[in-house]
């Protein structure tokens, strides 16, 4: 993924996740958010094309703790400004943020300032953050291509496990991940009251 792909990626995100918190902050914030995956050494940003036309994308991180530290260092101010502008323009979203997310975001920020390294001896985890395949390009295995490429990079980076979150039930992609070898670990209710399904997948070394 490159800078030239961001308009299409932002449009796809808003189309497929219209009720998500990041989408509600507006396209400026989304563009800045996806830029954090382009220059991060611990991030993965992939585009899949059909006949030269971008038809899907995937973003993820290979080391969540270190990636968050780098994100705050190099993109924190820009993200905060774009997020604040988005909130001020959308009073309803601002109210929801203060009620459901403000305390958690502040806690994450403080922990990121104090913790620069993963827990010693803990599992080395990669996180698949977002994946979208355009409706006109579904049924051709593009989602599998993107996921397999991400898992390959995670394995090459020495990760022990990959994890992801998707919407629970028929509106989510849980059945796709279950058929692809991912293990469903639990369901939980997210900050917005939506039921979410958590999946994991071990990444054994290829010999």
UniProtKB/TrEMBL annotation:
Q: Which UniProt keywords apply?
A: Membrane, Transferase, Transmembrane, Transmembrane helix
The segment(s) forming the N-acetyltransferase domain are: 1-207
PROSITE patterns hit by this protein:
GNAT
Q: Which Pfam families match?
A: Acetyltransf_10
Under the heading InterPro entries, the entry gives: Acyl_CoA_acyltransferase (IPR016181), GNAT_dom (IPR000182)
- GO MF annotation terms: acyltransferase activity, transferring groups other than amino-acyl groups
TM helices/strands, residue ranges: 37-59, 71-88
> Domain of life of the organism in this record?
Bacteria
Q: Which CDD domains does the UniProt record give?
A: NAT_SF
| UniProt-listed SUPFAM superfamilies | Acyl-CoA N-acyltransferases (Nat)
Residues making up the signal peptide according to the UniProt record: none
Q: What is this protein called?
A: GNAT superfamily N-acetyltransferase
